[in-house]
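Lab notebook, design round three. We kept the backbone fixed and only want residue identities now. Task for the bench partner: fill in a sequence for the structure below.
Input structure tokens:
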């Protein structure tokens, strides 16, 4: 897997995670933007670590 592919997967996955987190928590009365950003950053970090491990062993 090339670094460019890993970057695209990481950002795409983080956007999806942030969107889902924002929408779910918005229904419970929380701020969409705050939890979208938080979910995006958390998702990017976790996916980045997972992809780095996968790239090292493939």
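Proposed sequence:
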């Amino acid at each position: 897997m090339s670094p460019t592919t890993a970057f695209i997967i990481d950002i795409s996955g983080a956007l999806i995670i942030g969107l889902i987190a924002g929408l779910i928590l918005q229904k419970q009365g929380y701020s969409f933007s705050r939890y979208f950003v938080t979910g995006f950053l958390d998702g990017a970090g976790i996916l980045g670590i997972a992809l780095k491990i996968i790239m090292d062993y493939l």
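Keep this in mind before ordering anything: The mean pLDDT is 93.
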